[in-house]
Amino acid sequence: MQSRVKWVEGLTFVGQSNSGHSVVMDGNGGKTAPSPMELVLMAAGGCSSVDVVDGLKSAGQAITACEANITSERREQAPRYFTSANLHFVVTGHDLDDALVAKAVGDSLEKYCSVCLMLGQGVTLTHSYEIVAA
Question: 11-15, 26-30, 129-133: lowest mean pLDDT where?
Answer without folding.
Answer: 26-30
